[in-house]
Specification:
7-stranded mixed beta sheet, globular, 8-stranded parallel barrel
């Protein structure tokens, strides 16, 4: 689009609102921005040449691709956005503001070459008054300088999530009359609603309004608050007359507004009143400005022994955390995804959301109000602090902005800060300096607590801690907030499942006078991975199922646990991570694309009040395994339900009725090669049912005598896992040892990694050159051969390698809590490969030829004759031979 065309288009967009109303106009200006990374001189000037810059639409992030690629790191630096806007001359007697809903993380706005203002912090809204800097009826160049560079004075300093840079939430122009409700009070609505008294019979409401007269003459204004019922009917109206001198601002407090027999707000009945705050002329009744805010009437209490109470009733808070990322989008999400996420949470039966680790989009928060999701919101102090005044001041400003911007939300009951702030104390080896650091952390916490309680005395406060309980007690962090939060991962990062309740019992003894919330718990899941012998850190759905089955049962049984937040609603980006899905934290109960994992189904059956019957593994559509002589492979299948019993049908034949225990019915299922159709039916109500179709790829046990013909086989060596390659429609199965007439490995042992918490079943390396990392992250070390007693014919053999040992320095990640791989002695690995006595690979040195952690697939065509089958031999030259995976395909 040519520049002149762009200007005229914007003029039309803005002008269409000009005479629609005398009240405020809020209009997005998200389209047609020019963008470029880097530092530029004069980028704020009208005549700057941006013709070669990229055209972008906001929401936008510049890390969408580089944070996900195979090159370590992502761009953390400066970038510029430019846009030319012509503001109609009709607005010269109005007030014009610009609002940024979210920019990460340092922002400077310049208009026509003049600096308008700056903002530090990447997660709260900020507003600038730009009236005096505009040329009405002429071209104005808006230039926004943004940086997501590390800054020791801005939290978060580090975290287990990617710091996507950019203007990733809406940008709006706000046009008001010169008599208006403040838009610049820390990005808030300028109206603050409190409910000093709420019960079943009566509620009292107080409304504080910030009013400005920016005319050059005195003004007599009527300030009116109109309360609408949840049905939208006018319930009452209260008004006062306010005299303001020219240029004067005033804070008006209206008290003793009473609502009889209130409809209460709760997760089951999220009744929302609305408050319209309006200022108008006392003589002509001309409306100058008005804003609308939600009003939810509820009372609540967190107790130390009986948990949480809402409107006088005991309620167990169960839900998730949430990061603001989506598949291939980074932070730059459209409104629809924010809305859909809260609907997804509600559809699970949840009533609780920890908005972590930072304030999020107002559309998301509106949905929590509307659907009855109780929230905790926090500022992004994560892992550590900087001990200086600038860092402290930025934390206090963030807390102030957070509270004021979500002040009127009935869904928000908790303000939080300092997530796992003692996770990586920088002076752990110096006891004197470490004690000083702990003291400074406690001092900062006290200042933030005081700031929040000053801004909002009514709500609760929370500090989420990691598992080092004594450290938080030593720093005083268990006493400062009103609620103590625990991020606990016993049975994942180390220990066993029962360590969870043991930790809580100990914490209860040491901190008897505080309410408790489990602010995080979870296990990583790659939904492509499965195992019937699940292990810690194998990333299978089955291990996570066991983990959540234990944790959820304990959480529900302990009355003094007010609530719990699963980590996480969905998978999210964390650039430094490796493992099964590189650059992603996979602890979500849904995927980056919101694909439901079994853990989501489990909680749905546990939490929903309506009848539920759903077959587990609904996202595992291609399965495989070893079939017996009759072509049958028996594997387990879970049904999640809140019914008393479930009957399961396989291809129309009943497999019997199973009792549902702890929302689960377990079946042993006979799979056959090809399509398998399963129908699960409630034993209580036959209309409650679910169906799942599975494409099963059976591999015969005996490759020559079984009725099932051999088509292909895909085996991961050193592995107990199944891997579904959804893209290529392939199922990889676990290894087995060779037996005559069958197939399998001979010799060697499974590769494992050493950590401070024991061995792990797979490498955590980001495997270069593949999206199927798990296929290459296990291996059999010292393998002698792999044999398949296939019948005569033509076959293609694919040998998959990746060197999993490296001489490079391995990075330690604090949030791995001791599960980083310990460096082993590196040795040279060279070996030969023969197939049926023919040397096909000589002196293979994976590290020297390709580098460690690189996916290598070598294909070989093999003609099998005279009943010799396929015998792949690995001959040691130096070190131990290795094989990660093998695929054998029968051509004919």
């Amino acid at each position: 689009m040519k520049k002149n065309s762009l200007v005229s288009t914007i003029l039309i967009i803005v002008s269409c609102f000009t005479y629609a109303s005398n009240t405020r106009i809020i209009s997005s200006i998200n389209q047609a921005w020019k963008f470029s990374k880097g530092e530029f001189q004069n980028a704020s000037q009208l005549n700057f040449d941006d013709s070669k810059w990229e055209n972008v639409t906001i929401p936008h992030t510049w890390n969408k691709d580089d944070a996900l690629d195979e090159i370590p790191g992502f761009y953390r630096g400066t970038a510029w956005y430019r846009r030319t806007i012509s503001v109609p001359v009709e607005y010269k007697d109005k007030k014009v503001f610009i609002s940024f809903d979210g920019v990460n993380q340092e922002t400077e706005l310049l208009i026509n070459g003049l600096s308008i203002g700056t903002h530090l912090g990447g997660y709260t809204r900020f507003v600038f008054d730009i009236t005096d800097k505009l040329k009405f009826g002429e071209k104005n160049i808006f230039a926004v300088k943004v940086s997501n560079m590390y800054n020791e004075n801005i939290p978060p300093l580090s975290a287990d999530f990617t710091f996507f840079g950019g203007i990733y939430r809406d940008v709006n122009l706000i046009i008001t009359d010169k008599n208006h409700i403040s838009t610049t009070d820390s990005g808030s609505s300028g109206v603050y609603i409190t409910t000093p008294k709420v019960n079943d019979n009566e509620a009292t409401v107080e409304i504080k309004t910030l009013v400005k007269n920016e005319n050059t003459f005195d003004q007599k204004l009527k300030v009116e608050n109109i309360i609408l019922s949840p049905k939208g009917e006018t319930l009452l109206s209260k008004s006062v007359v306010l005299k303001l001198k020219a240029g004067e601002s005033s804070t008006l407090l209206q008290k003793d507004i009473r609502i009889e027999n209130p409809l209460l707000w709760s997760p089951d009945s999220p009744n929302l009143y609305k408050v319209i705050t309006r200022i108008s002329d006392t003589k002509t009744n001309q409306i100058y400005d008005e804003v609308m805010n939600p009003l939810g009437l509820r009372w609540y209490e967190f107790t130390t022994d009986k948990g949480f109470f809402l409107n006088g009733k005991s309620v167990k808070l169960i839900g998730t955390n949430r990061h603001q990322t989506y598949l291939n989008m980074g932070y730059a999400l459209p409104d629809e995804i924010h809305v859909a996420d809260i609907k997804l949470l509600k559809a699970m039966g949840a009533n609780f959301l920890r908005v972590s680790h930072y304030p999020q989009d107002h559309i998301l928060m509106e949905m929590c109000d509307k659907l009855g999701i109780i929230c905790s919101v926090e500022i992004p102090i994560v892992n550590a602090i900087t001990e200086n005044e600038a860092f402290t001041n930025n934390c206090l400003i963030m807390a102030h902005e957070m509270v004021l911007q979500d002040f009127n939300r009935p869904s928000v009951l908790i303000w939080a800060y300092m997530n796992e702030v003692l996770l990586r104390p920088p002076f752990a080896k110096d006891s004197i300096r470490n004690a000083e650091y702990f003291k400074n952390v406690g001092s900062l916490a006290a200042k933030i607590e005081n700031q929040i309680r000053k801004d909002d005395p009514a709500r609760y406060t929370l500090i989420p801690s990691h598992g080092n309980l004594d450290a938080y007690i030593e720093a005083g962090l268990s006493e400062i907030p009103k609620i103590v939060g625990f991020n606990l991962y016993q049975g994942w990062y180390g220990g066993v499942f029962s360590g969870f309740e043991e930790y809580l019992e100990n914490a209860k003894k040491k901190i008897p006078n505080k309410p408790f919330i489990i602010t995080e718990y979870g296990a990583d899941v790659d939904p492509r991975l499965h195992s019937f012998q699940p292990q810690r850190f194998d990333y299978t759905q089955e291990y996570a199922n066991l983990y959540h089955e234990h944790y959820s049962k304990q959480i529900m049984s302990l009355p003094w646990i007010s609530g719990a937040n699963i980590w996480n609603l969905s998978d999210f980006y964390s650039e430094e991570r490796g493992y099964a899905v590189p650059h992603v934290n996979s602890k979500g109960i849904t995927g980056l694309n919101r694909e439901k994992k079994d853990t989501y189904l489990q909680y749905q059956a546990m939490l929903l009040k309506k009848p539920v019957v759903v077959i587990g593994g609904e996202n595992w559509k291609i399965r495989g395994g070893i079939a017996d002589a009759n072509g049958i492979c028996v594997q387990p299948l879970k049904i999640y339900s809140n019914q008393s019993s479930v009957e399961l049908f396989a291809n129309g034949k009943s497999l019997g009725i199973q009792k549902v225990t702890d929302n689960i019915a377990n079946f042993k299922v006979p799979f056959v090669d090809g399509e398998n159709i399963f129908d699960a039916v409630s034993g209580d109500n036959s209309t409650i049912r679910d169906q799942l179709k599975i494409d099963f790829r059976a591999v015969p046990e005996n490759l020559k005598t079984d009725n099932l013909s051999f088509k292909e086989i895909n085996v991961m060596l050193g592995s107990k896992r199944y891997f579904e390659d959804k893209t290529n429609s392939v199922i990889w199965i676990p290894e087995k040892e060779y037996s005559k007439g069958s197939w399998g490995y001979i010799g060697g042992q499974p590769f494992t990694t050493r950590t401070r918490h024991g061995a792990q079943p797979a490498s955590d390396l980001d495997i270069i050159g593949t999206g199927n990392d798990p296929v290459f992250q296990t291996a059999r070390i010292g393998i002698e051969s792999f044999k398949l007693d296939v019948s005569d014919g033509k076959y293609t053999v694919y040998l998959n390698w990746a060197e999993l040992q490296t001489d490079k320095e391995l990075k330690t990640l604090a949030y791995n809590l001791g599960n980083d791989v310990l460096k082993d002695d590196f040795y040279k690995r060279v070996f030969d490969v023969d197939i049926n006595g023919v040397n096909v690979q000589k002196n293979l040195n994976l590290t020297e030829e390709y580098g460690a952690g690189t996916a290598i697939i070598k294909k070989f065509e093999v003609d099998v004759v005279k009943g010799e089958g396929i015998n792949i031999q690995f001959r040691k030259v130096t070190g131990e031979p290795i094989l990660n995976a093998i695929r054998v395909y029968k051509n004919y």
